[in-house]
Write a structure and sequence with these properties.
transmembrane, transmembrane helix, 61 residues, mainly alpha, 3 helices, DUF2065 domain-containing protein
């Protein structure tokens, strides 16, 4: 189980690194825009992402 978690964490790092690698200026602008978003919106977005990911994992498995 720990090996799968480590693999998943590595894949997250690869996916997270794609945008800054390919489009550094756009990524910088996006990060600046995210700094202006209120906490409630960020939390709702995070919750939706987590639920979507968990649902997709459930469907795949």
């Amino acid at each position: 189980m720990w090996e799968e978690i480590a693999k998943a964490a590595c894949l997250i790092l690869v996916i997270e690194g794609i945008l800054p690698f390919l489009y550094p200026n756009r990524w910088r602008k996006l990060a600046a825009q995210l700094a202006t978003v209120d906490n409630r919106t960020l939390r709702i977005t995070g919750l939706v992402c987590m639920l979507t990911g968990a649902s997709l994992l459930y469907l795949i498995k």
